[in-house]
Specification:
13% of the residues lie in helices and 22% in strands. By secondary structure, it is an alpha+beta fold. The protein has one domain (1-55): Pemi-like Protein 1, Chain: D.
């Protein structure tokens, strides 16, 4: 599944430094509970990318 979304949303960091991925973003990218994400640090930014299972 290829999905390109141009969207910027503000989220808050909670206890234990957790963030909640907004439903609209999770649905657009096919992220469910238990999904794996790749976290990249680029300069002063954080990028999260879904890790797709090899088929």
């Amino acid at each position: 599944m290829v999905c390109y979304v141009d969207l910027a949303l503000e989220v808050r960091v909670g206890r234990r430094r957790t963030i909640v991925i907004p439903k609209v973003v999770a649905e657009a990218l096919g992220i469910d509970e238990g999904s794996r994400l790749l976290l990249e640090v680029r300069g002063d930014s954080i990028v999260l990318k879904p890790v797709r299972d090899a088929i």
